[in-house]
Amino acid sequence: MRKKKIIYVISLLLLVICSMFAYYTLKKPPEVAKAAEDRYRRGHNIPGKLYWAGSAQDKEVALTFDDGPEEVWTPKVLDILKQKNVKATFFIIGKQAQKYPEMLRQINADGHIIGNHTFGHVDLTKLDAQQVDQEIEKCALIIHDIIGKTPRLVRPPFGFHNPDVDNVVYSKGKIIVLWSLDTEDWTALPPVGLTAAI
Ligand SMILES: [Zn+2]
């Protein structure tokens, strides 16, 4: 009888431990879960309007960096790109550009492409058309004030977009650029080699 009780208690304990483990490993913040979900909804390129990736035939990659400029990582990334003689696209947050205009000038001076990543890095699908327009235009104006160029490429924050957001972007003659491979460095995982990431 006692033995049965002990087995029962041990099983119960194991069950609790397993449930806790599953809860903490599987639980993801809503943005991460939404971003993960979004990866499975990848569509096809819409020529001249929306791109997920370049041609699968060409052995080329396009590197893109989001959320800058800032003063810790942007200079490091720029140094490596210069060393390797590689050009990339930087999707700029307007608010960040206001804070670090010199860094934006440096990105531009190094010959990289500048893209628009909205003013405040908000989920555009939560806004109405006018607010979406403001987020994009405000960022565009700030960038123009600093480097005299208006970006044509737009990357919606978190990759969250819908037909309403897309139409606002298209109506301005701008192009949406998403991605086909996410390094997920933003999840603060330990660094991995590119081969491992693919
Ligand atoms: Zn971003």
What would CATH call the architecture of one domain?
Alpha-Beta Barrel
- Termini separation comes to 55 Å
CATH class of one domain: Alpha Beta
Structural class: mainly alpha
Q: What is the helix content?
A: 40-55%
Might you state the CATH topology name of one domain? Answer: TIM Barrel
Strand content: 5-15%
* Main sheet: strand order: 1-6-5
Query: Count of DSSP E strands?
Result: 6
Helical region count?
8
Tell me what you see in this structure.
By secondary structure, the protein is mainly alpha-helical. The chain has a domain at 47-184: Glycoside hydrolase/deacetylase (TIM Barrel, Alpha-Beta Barrel). 47% of the residues lie in helices and 10% in strands. The chain is built from eight helices and six strands. The longest helix has 25 residues, at 2-26. Zinc ion is lined by residues 66-67, 117, 121, 157.
